[in-house]
Amino acid sequence: MKASGIGGQAVIEGVMMKNGSQYAVSVRTPDGQIETMTDTFTSFSEKVKLFKLPILRGMLAFVESLTIGMKTLAFSSSFFDEEEPEDSKIEQAVQKRFGEKSEKIMMGGTVVVSILLAIVIFMLVPFFLSSLLGKLIQNQTILVILEGLIRVLIFVLYVMIISRMEEIKRVFMYHGAEHKSINCVEHGLPLTVENVRTQGREHKRCGTSFLLYVMLISIILFMFIRVSSPWLRILFRILLIPVIAGIAYEFIQLAGKTDNVVVKVLSKPGLWLQALTTKEPTDEMIEVAIASVEAVFDWKSFIRTVAAEEKKEEKKQEKRQESRERRERKRNEDESRVEKTWAQLRQEAEEKKRAEEAKAAEEAAKDWKTSTIPLPSLKEEEVEDSFDAALIGSDDEDDIDSILEQYSSRRR
Question: Is the per-residue pLDDT at 202 higher than 80?
Answer without folding.
Answer: yes
